[in-house]
Design goal:
Rossmann fold; six-stranded mixed β-sheet; 8 helices; Caspase-like_dom_sf
Length: about 270
Amino acid sequence: GNDLPDMHHARITAQDGNDLDIMINKFLSYERNPYTATNFYDEPLVACGFQTERWFQLASEIVRGFFANELGKSPVRQYAIYSGNPQPGDPWSTNTNTYMIVDYFGASGLGYIPDLIPPGIPWTTGNATGINAAINSGTFIVQHRDHGGYSGWGEPDYTLSDLNNLFNTMYPYVFSTNCLTGAYDYSSEVFAEKFHRIQYGALGINAASDVSYSFVNDTYIWGMYDCMWPQFDPGYGAFDMTGYSNLRPCQAMTYGKYYLQASGWQLHHHFLL
């Protein structure tokens, strides 16, 4: 046996009939009345915190670069600094294995990112107001990578109370790739639960039910995107679940864990829908 899933699984985190009514009506609305606003599909939101020795910024910019360079989309950035002072020409991270990621996804590889930090990235302007504006305007995916906790994201600072300022009627899928934001066994409502339960907010959300780990989480992100768009990592063919673009995040969660195992990292079990 192993820790890898043998089936796709997800949950509806309703606490009562009112929650269930809201959530199911969101699902039905999404299926019965597909959105036609162009910006919903063209402007994915990528939010992250910069930390010099981590890969938060690397994971986020690789996803952003794929959206922009391969899919022709116009991703929206909301970035803030946890630690460090990124400057154009700096390395993406001081982690010793960063060169391998840059070689693969960088200018001499897949071309999703430059080999060094380029000018023009707004590292310090991300905030809750900007995140809510992007979601309220319309976006089909929200991708966050940084630290997290029961109440929400570290950088940019975006927590339970900020969700009260959402009024979107087009619902995104949210990847909350950080610690604890999906801790469904916590004593009170956590970030992912509220994001999913409220009238506005998320159609669905992928979030960690426990403490999760740097570098592992970043690799998991790349695996999920390779499930949804198999051209994301053309070098990974050992386990191709679909072979075609498959925007089903539940399947992507399963696929991401197999991708993670193939990469050599050995933690597969904390992320849930």
